[in-house]
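I can't quite decide. Please look over this sequence plus structure tokens:

:::
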Amino acid sequence: MRLHTVLLGCGLLLSSVTMGQSKALKGKFEMKQLLSDSSYAWFHNGVNRYNANTTMVNYIKTNKDKIQLVALVNPADEASRTLLPEFYKVMILSSVPEESIHMYAVDNSGNSGDTKADSYKVKKYPTIIVVRDGKEEGRITGAASSTVEDDLAKIIMKMNAK
């Protein structure tokens, strides 16, 4: 009886570890890929948990047609697993069109396999880049300094002040 319990416990532990691992994602991707795949439950949970600052979201919303956003993330990295769902929630609430958001996944060595993504010369992940008229206006590197929406709004404010 005791051996049976130990084997059952090991089997449950192994299956939970295996289910907790995400599939390898690399190169250009869309958010709906993360939402539709149960191996990315961390993403769905993070989106639902995040409460964004409405004032900052509204500021981003009023400027959404002026910008393009590029996000380079490593889905295996904890900082990316925190920032990416928060970023997506802000994008939803700000009504930023999907075609204005360009997402790239990199592996642990920082390789995306995509020449466009590599052209941004990112050294730390996650990184979110704000672009206007093909020119980089600012970026969030690593964790947001306060919140994603606050950091994005500050970049947009500086952009508008030019």
Notes: Residues 73 and 125 are 5 Å apart (CA to CA). Confidence is low (pLDDT under 50) at residues 3-22.
